[in-house]
Amino acid sequence: MPKQFEEIFEASKDAIGYAALDGGILLVNRAFSELTGFSREELLRMNAQDLIPEQHKEQRDRVVTQVLQAGEPVEYEIEYLRKNGSQVPVSITVFAVKGDDGKPAGLAAIVRNLTERKRAEEQFRLVVESSPNGIVMVDKSGTILLVNQQIEQLFGYGRAELIGQPVEMLVPPRMRSHHAGDREIFFAHSEPRAMGKGRDLYGMRKDGQEFPLEIGLNPIRTRGGMRVLASVVDISERKRAEQTLQKERDFIDAVLEIAGALVVVLDRKGRILRFNRTCEQTTG
Fold first, then answer.
1. What's the angle, vertex CA 253, arms to CA 252 and CA 255, rounded to 5?
2. What is the average pLDDT value for the chain, to the nearest integer?
3. Where are the domains of the chain?
């Protein structure tokens, strides 16, 4: 290996390895040794299969077959076995290295440690699950990617029934066309905001029952593209309270209007807030 390539190879933060077609490890860099806990000498006496936990060996064999048959790199995620017996989550990009005859002579792998990413994903999952509001994440097409327990309780669906389905299944049929349009507008001009400001929004449960809700939208940029994280709140109780209060106000207004006495309502500073018809007729 030319010295400049050897320096690049050793300086890589990602683990890089090269193995024969039978899996015998022929070459590894320093990062590979640090990732697995085995010394370079130990690794060069091992087979690539020795690093694969039993539950992932079938997947690894399928990937190798695909790479050799299609001739294209394949990326997949598994765990690697470390020398101390622990397992570390990794992303592996495998590609065939061809010999002078144009046929595959071996397999190279670029291995990235996913421990920090997995930890961040777990923290994100815990935050989503502990939220008192319903949380749902969708992609640009409106496909549901993630929901929390509150969404399951609000809409009456199990998680498995929602993941991979269009988010419009949670929207009353009469509002679905508007919802799709709102989603397209949001992706075109994505910023945190309330959905449908100034409009009454409704969700539809699995049993067909509709209920009023509020939705807050937050754009999230991921490796897979733009996502929208929506916070969903059932406002049925608030609506009922508002309706009750309005009925009480309407009743008071009706009583004031038919009262024969002059009635004036003042605030604490003595400013007039309202008065009835008798007051208007009396004072002119």
1. 65
2. 87
3. 3-113, 118-234, 238-283
Query: Among residues 40, 44, 42, which one has the least CA distance to residue 29?
Result: 40
pTM over 0.70: no
CB 128 within 8 A of CB 135: yes
What's the pLDDT tens digit per position in 106-132? 999 999 999 999 998 899 889 999 999
CATH fold for the domain made of 3-113: Beta-Lactamase (3.30.450)
| Overall fold of domain 118-234 | Beta-Lactamase (3.30.450)
